[in-house]
């Protein structure tokens, strides 16, 4: 073989090796997902029973993948195309094929932050929480409306919502609805420490009753520093056998959350939630009170107030009174302020 031929062959092989090396580097290491400068982490949701092609459709639809051919090539080598695992996977900007496929193939899904806040109705909880997971709202609704399931956790179908303490939880998208309830049950037990249980007992209330009262307090005022005083008013009325006459319970009974001014005729609505008609606490919470509000009920102020009304200067605070005559005078000032502002309903 002539020297020139040897050199030519060497150069050809070198070029081929360089080309293949570069290609395989692109296939394995080069950024291929979310390569645009403004791309942000994408949550790839892969439901149970998904195929490789359905995953590819999602990646293409959301313009996550840059070079489809190289991704498919490596997926076949790594046999990801043969077994797709369900889950929620965070695809980060400038991710390489191998990094992404190792994550997807291993089923190393990412937990997601799920926040429960002050939802008013059980249906809100079912819809807004259930829709965040693969199982959906219907599956959660079936469990929360099942007496046997609720009884398992010490609740009925009305009070089961008390188990969902507002907070942010790290949960997997593929969690089963039964597992979600188990997790919430553990969080509920963790919250209700022996110290909190003792405080509830000292108030002569069950844990559920504390949360029901906390939901009323939360609806009355969002001023955390005022909540213990408001709670004290209701506790005084309960001890003396006086109806709570809490406006938020009437609004809940009417299911009209746009009301800004209750009318006398609305106070007669026949509902177990109407504390103008029925003594004691309503059968369930009227929202999901925050843990801090529950603590404010457990640490309620001890005083002699029996009444309160929104301050007529609309600072968000209330004016408290010990006698009905004082209260009626304060209420008149508030009603006059509403009229001046043309708030009639």
From TrEMBL:
Entry function: Functions as a peptidoglycan terminase that cleaves nascent peptidoglycan strands endolytically to terminate their elongation.
Subcellular location: Cell membrane
Protein's UniProt name: Endolytic murein transglycosylase
Domain of life, source organism: Bacteria
EC number: 4.2.2.29
Gene Ontology molecular-function annotations: lytic endotransglycosylase activity
UniProt membrane topology term: Single-pass membrane protein
Record family assignment: Belongs to the transglycosylase MltG family.
Sorted UniProt keywords: Cell membrane, Cell wall biogenesis/degradation, Lyase, Membrane, Transmembrane, Transmembrane helix
Record's keyword annotation contains Ribosomal protein: no
Organism this protein belongs to: Spirosoma endophyticum
Residues the record marks as site: Important for catalytic activity: 220
């Amino acid at each position: 073989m002539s020297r020139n031929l040897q050199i030519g062959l060497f150069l050809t092989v070198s070029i081929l090796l360089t080309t293949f090396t570069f290609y395989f580097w692109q296939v394995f290491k080069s950024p291929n997902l979310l390569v645009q400068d403004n791309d942000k982490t994408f949550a790839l949701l892969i439901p149970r029973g998904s195929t490789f092609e359905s995953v590819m459709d999602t990646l293409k639809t959301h313009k996550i993948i840059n070079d489809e051919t190289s991704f498919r090539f490596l997926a076949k080598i790594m046999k990801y195309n043969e077994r797709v695992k369900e889950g929620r996977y965070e695809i980060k900007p400038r991710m390489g094929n191998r990094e992404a496929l190792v994550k997807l193939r291993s089923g190393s899904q990412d937990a997601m932050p799920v926040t429960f806040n002050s939802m008013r109705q059980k249906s809100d909880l079912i819809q807004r929480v259930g829709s965040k997971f693969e199982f959906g709202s219907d599956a959660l609704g079936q469990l929360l409306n099942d007496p046997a399931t609720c009884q398992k956790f010490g609740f009925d179908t009305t009070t089961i919502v008390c188990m969902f303490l507002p907070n942010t939880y790290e949960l997997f998208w593929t969690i089963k609805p039964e597992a979600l309830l188990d997790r919430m049950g553990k969080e509920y037990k963790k919250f209700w420490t022996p110290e909190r249980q003792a405080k509830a007992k000292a108030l002569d209330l069950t844990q559920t009753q504390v949360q029901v009262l906390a939901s009323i307090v939360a609806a009355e005022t969002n001023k955390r520093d005022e909540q213990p005083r408001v709670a004290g008013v209701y506790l005084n009325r309960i001890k003396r056998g006086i109806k709570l006459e809490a406006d938020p319970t009437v609004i809940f009974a009417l299911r009209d959350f746009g009301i800004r001014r209750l009318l006398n005729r609305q106070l007669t609505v026949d509902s177990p939630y109407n504390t103008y008609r029925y003594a004691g606490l309503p059968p369930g919470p009227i929202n999901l009170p925050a843990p801090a509000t529950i603590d404010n009920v457990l640490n309620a102020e001890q005083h002699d107030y029996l009444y309160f009304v929104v301050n007529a200067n609309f600072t968000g605070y209330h004016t408290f009174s010990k006698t009905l005559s004082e209260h009626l005078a304060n209420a008149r000032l508030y009603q006059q302020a509403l009229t001046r502002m043309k708030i009639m309903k």
